[in-house]
What we know:
It is built from ten helices and 14 strands. By secondary structure, it is of the alpha+beta class. The strands form four sheets. It has a five-stranded mixed sheet with strand order 1-9-14-13-12, with helices on both faces. Strand 5, helix 4 (95-102) and strand 6 form a beta-alpha-beta unit. The longest helix is centred in the C-terminal third of the chain and has 19 residues, at 226-244.
Amino acid sequence: MDLDLPLRISGVGRYLPERVVHSRDLERRCGLPAGWAERRAGVITRRWADPHRETAARMGAWAALEALEDAGLGPRDLDLILGASGTPQQPIPDGAALIQRELGLGASGIPAFSVHATCLSFLTALQVAAHLLASGTYRRILVVSSEVASVGLNFAQPESAVLMGDAAAAVVLERARLGHSSALLAARFETYGDGAHLTEIRGGGSALPPLSPAARPEDFTFRMEGLRVLRMARDLSGAFLEALRPGLSQGLAGLRAVVPHQASRAGLELLSRYGWPERAVARTLPHLGNCVAASIPATLYDLLRSGEVQRGDELLLVGTGAGFSMGGVILRY
């Protein structure tokens, strides 16, 4: 959908947990041959949080403070905080309120709520924020994706256990002023619920609460049928990209760079079929892993910090999420 909403990324921030976990250590834990994790998942190292010190809310706040400094603002200059995470710190209250408190804004009254679309949460939040800014409802919006996925891994399923990493990333968004070309040019989301069971954590909700006699420990860990998810992405993504921008399934179509969700090695390799040069596709998978909704903004952070993207360049942010869902936004930075 063509939108052309005035949207400016004023600041970016990121926090990576201190602990670096090497694939060789996970291979030993899972009884896998040396090199298996890199060959299959594409991950050499990833960061895992200390869940007592590096909580999702604290990580999100640390990333947010860097983004605010980058924008030349302070926490009290915000008028909305949007959480955009797939792995909540706790079911209630919403994680955005916990981030607000960690920022020292617990008595501020600044509204805080989350947009939840698993791995696509950041993209969904960008679209929501763009409409809110364009309407004049808010002036400065903080979007934060903070993920601690490592606490919910099942090491009997090494496909996902070696893939996931923890990270937080944040952006400060404002309405682009007159004379500035920054904009959200297009956005598209599609969901195919027939694939909902392919990527899930079954327990923790009303269908399988913690005290249910039917609940098993593995019901509260992440499970994924990666090959079937990959096949859905392969079969559906070409038409999806064409609907987002004609020509996008055959080349860059005027884009400077692509920032994909770091889903897996196979997921990133799938992108080559669209004629996108490897140099134009940003990657953090080998050293960060799949960081759920934080993957796209954490990778965007690297791209913007590198100086390879200038104001006026057009970027595609794109990915898949549990559901099965696909999402993409085109930004003019």
